[in-house]
Amino acid sequence: MTQLETYISQFKDKTISVAVYDLQTQEEILINADEMMHPASTMKVPVMMEVFRQAQAGLLSLDEQLKIFNSFKSIVDGSEFSLEIADDSELTLYKRIGETESIRELVRLMIVLSSNLASNILMEKVGTARVDAFIKELGIEDMAVIRGLEDKKAYRLNINNAASARSSTTMMRLIAEGKIISREVCDEMIQIMLGQEFNESIPALIPNHAKVAHKTGWSGEFFHDTGIVFPPNRKPYVISIFTRGFPEDNENEAHACMAKVSRLVYEKIILERP
C-alpha cells in the first residue's frame, strides 16, 4: 500500500476519491476515482467551457453586458426561486440587481470567487442543456450538469448534477492539453483558474513555485478540488480530489485532508522521480 493509500484508508467513515494524470509520464493515480458525487461548484468549469465555446462560435461576445438578476425557475415545476446571499461566497452582485456586467467578468467571478449568482445568470444565457451536451460531445463520461445552483426543489427530489474524480480529471486534462475549442481558449481558461482565491486544498501544502489552476466545490458533506498543477521545468499534472462525509460545519477538516492528499501526490510525482 502506498503512503497515499495508507493515508486515505484512515478515513473509515468518509469517501476520498482521487484521480491524477501526469502529462509528463502519462501515468495515473486512481483511488475510488469512479465514485459518483454531487460536484458542487466544480460544475462551474463546464459552464465556463460552454461560454467560451459559444463565444468562439459567434453566438455571444465575452464583452456583452448581461443584466444582473436573481430569479430563476426550478427544473421540477418551473416555480421561481432566488439565491440566498448567505449561501454564496461572492456578495457584491446581490447589491447590483438590475445593473449589468460583462460575460467575461461574470465568468471570472464564477470561477475565482465561486459566485453562484454569476453561475446561474450565465447558465440562463448559454442554456443548461448546452452545457451538458458539450460535456458529452467532448467524450467526458460520468459527468452531468442538469440544473443551476440552489434549486432546492430539485435537490430534495435528488435531481442533481453529478461527477466523479476521474471525470473531472478527464475534463481538466483536456484543458491542460489544449483540446477544448483551441489552445488559446484553454490558455485563457487556465489563466482564469490561476486566479482562484480559495486555496486551502490542492495548493496549500505544495511549493509556491508550483502554480495551480483549479476550481473548488462545497455543498453539504461534499468538499472537492480539481485542477492543473504546473511544477517548474516539466509538464503539468492534473489532480481531482472529491470527498464525501466531512461535517459541513467543519470545513477545515476537509481542507486539511485534501491538502495532505495533494502534498502526497506532489511528493510521489515530483520528489520520488528522478
Word description of this protein:
It is a single chain. By secondary structure, the protein is α+β, with helices and mostly antiparallel strands. The protein folds into two domains: 1-37 and 164-274, DD-peptidase/beta-lactamase superfamily (Beta-lactamase), CATH 3.40.710.10; 41-163, DD-peptidase/beta-lactamase superfamily (Beta-lactamase). 37% of the residues lie in helices and 18% in strands. It has helices spanning 3-9, 44-56, 103-112, 116-126, 128-137, 152-156, 165-176, 183-194, 251-271, and strands at residues 15-22, 28-31, 65-67, 72-73, 80-81, 100-102, 211-219, 222-230, 237-244. The strands form three sheets. A five-stranded antiparallel β-sheet has the order 2-1-9-8-7, with helices on both faces. The protein has a two-stranded antiparallel ribbon with strand order 3-6. A two-stranded antiparallel sheet has the order 4-5. α2 runs antiparallel to α3 and α3 crosses α4.
Summarize the structure.
The protein is of the alpha+beta class. The chain folds into 2 domains: 1-37 and 164-274, DD-peptidase/beta-lactamase superfamily (Beta-lactamase); 41-163, Beta-lactamase (3-Layer(aba) Sandwich), CATH 3.40.710.10.
In sequence order, what are the helices and strands, one letter per element?
HEEHEEEEHHHHHHEEEH
Q: How would the global form be characterised?
A: globular
Overall mean pLDDT: 96
What fraction of the residues are assigned to beta strands by DSSP? Answer: 15-25%
Largest beta-sheet characterization? 5 strands, antiparallel
Structural class: alpha+beta
- CATH superfamily assignment of the largest domain? DD-peptidase/beta-lactamase superfamily
Task: Identify the strand order in the major beta sheet.
Answer: 2-1-9-8-7
Question: Unreliable stretches, pLDDT < 50, 5 or more residues?
Answer: none
Helical residue percent band: 25-40%
- Which topology of the largest domain does CATH recognise? Beta-lactamase
Structural Rg: 18 Å
State the name of the first-level CATH class of the largest domain: Alpha Beta
What is the correct CATH architecture of the largest domain?
A: 3-Layer(aba) Sandwich
Number of helices: 9
Number of domains: 2
